[in-house]
């Protein structure tokens, strides 16, 4: 693990591989850059792959009252510090929301978007936001993780994946989690999604109960040129639950994108 000093403070990041157009990986509200280990290992053979923490998460400095736009600006600032002008941007759940915010702020820097288990607007977003913060306050982050893990994962998820999800969520600073929850669940980026013109891949676990497949269908309608792939047997954390399939689909998509 590690970090990079940026104009917006210290940003946690980890990278693997070299060459090609960099692939930037953006995590969800209940995790950090470590959730992308299977992609760092599996996609870095001929490409530089970078996973980033949002402010207050992992090894990044906190930023009081940070918004999804601040999360996007921090990722862009990390790319500046790494001297990366343009990249493929892959985000899961909150990461997809942040990816759309990055594209809105700097479309010229996004060669392509990969939006996994995400959405433009969630019909139950406000209720999920309120329940999540209430549960975090009442149960603590470990209690929240233990209560939520079954909803996050598909039926085939291993005990190891289950334990990893709980441990990772348990380590999140509650203040950062509250900002992340606001950034994701209260988002309405339908106009931003409709404005996307770069190559786009939409992924969704077939058993995702948090951001179910119909929300990916809506993204596909908003971004008509986008490709949509459903990952069988995966829940909300499709990259972690079915990493071989996830990586293969991403590799095929990136191979068809002109850098």
Topology, please?
Blueprint: E1 3-6, E2 9-16, E3 23-26, H1 37-42, E4 49-52, H2 68-81, E5 87-92, H3 94-105, E6 110-116, H4 125-152, H5 159-170, H6 174-185, H7 190-194, E7 200-205, H8 213-222, E8 227-231, H9 238-241, H10 243-255
Parallel strand pairs: 3-4, 3-5, 5-6, 6-7, 7-8
Antiparallel strand pairs: 1-2, 2-4
Helix pairs in contact: 2-3, 3-6, 4-5, 4-6
In short:
By secondary structure, the chain is an alpha/beta fold.
What does this structure look like?
Helix 3 (about 95-105) packs across helix 6 (about 175-185) and helix 4 (about 125-150) packs across helix 6. About 50% of the residues are buried. The radius of gyration is 16 Å and the shape is globular. The protein has about 260 residues and is α/β, with parallel strands linked by helices. Strand 1 and strand 2 (about 10-15) form a beta hairpin. The longest helix has 28 residues, at about 125-150. It has an eight-stranded mixed beta sheet, with helices on both faces. It has helices spanning about 35-40, 70-80, 95-105, 125-150, 160-170, 175-185, 190-195, 215-220, 240, 245-255, and strands at about 5, 10-15, 25, 50, 85-90, 110-115, 200-205, 225-230. About 45% of the residues lie in helices and about 15% in strands.
Percentage of helical residues?
A: 40-55%
User: Strand fraction band?
Assistant: 15-25%
The major sheet is characterized as: 8 strands, mixed
Query: What general form does the structure show?
Result: globular
The radius of gyration over CA amounts to 16 Å
Number of helices: 10
Could you give the order of the helices and strands? Answer: EEEHEHEHEHHHHEHEHH
Provide the residue-averaged pLDDT: 97
Q: What is the strand tally?
A: 8
With strands numbered from the N-terminus, the spatial order across the biggest sheet is 1-2-4-3-5-6-7-8
Spans with pLDDT under 50 lasting ≥5 residues? Answer: none
Structural class: alpha/beta
Distance between the termini: 28 Å
């Amino acid at each position: 693990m590690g970090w990079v000093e940026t104009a917006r403070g210290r940003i946690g990041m980890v990278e693997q591989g070299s060459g090609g157009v960099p692939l930037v990986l953006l995590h969800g509200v209940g995790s950090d850059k470590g959730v992308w280990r299977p992609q760092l290992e599996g996609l870095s053979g001929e490409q530089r792959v970078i996973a980033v923490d949002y402010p207050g998460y992992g090894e990044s400095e906190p930023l009081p009252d940070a918004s999804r736009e601040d999360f996007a600006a921090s990722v862009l600032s990390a790319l500046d510090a790494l001297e990366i002008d343009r990249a493929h941007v892959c985000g899961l759940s909150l990461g997809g929301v942040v990816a759309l915010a990055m594209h809105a702020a700097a479309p010229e820097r996004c060669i392509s978007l990969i939006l996994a288990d995400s959405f433009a607007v969630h019909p139950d977003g406000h209720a999920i936001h309120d329940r999540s913060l209430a549960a975090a306050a009442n149960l603590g982050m470990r209690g929240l993780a233990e209560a939520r893990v079954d909803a996050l994962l598909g039926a085939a998820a291993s005990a190891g994946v289950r334990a990893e999800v709980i441990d990772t969520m348990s380590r999140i600073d509650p203040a950062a989690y509250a900002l992340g929850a606001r950034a994701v669940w209260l988002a309405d980026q339908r106009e931003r999604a409709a404005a996307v013109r770069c190559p786009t891949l939409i992924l969704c676990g077939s058993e995702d109960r948090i951001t179910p497949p119909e929300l990916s269908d809506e993204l596909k309608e908003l971004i008509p040129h986008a490709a949509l792939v459903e990952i069988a047997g995966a829940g909300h954390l499709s990259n972690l639950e079915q990493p071989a399939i996830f990586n293969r689909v991403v590799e095929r998509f990136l191979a068809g994108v002109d850098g």
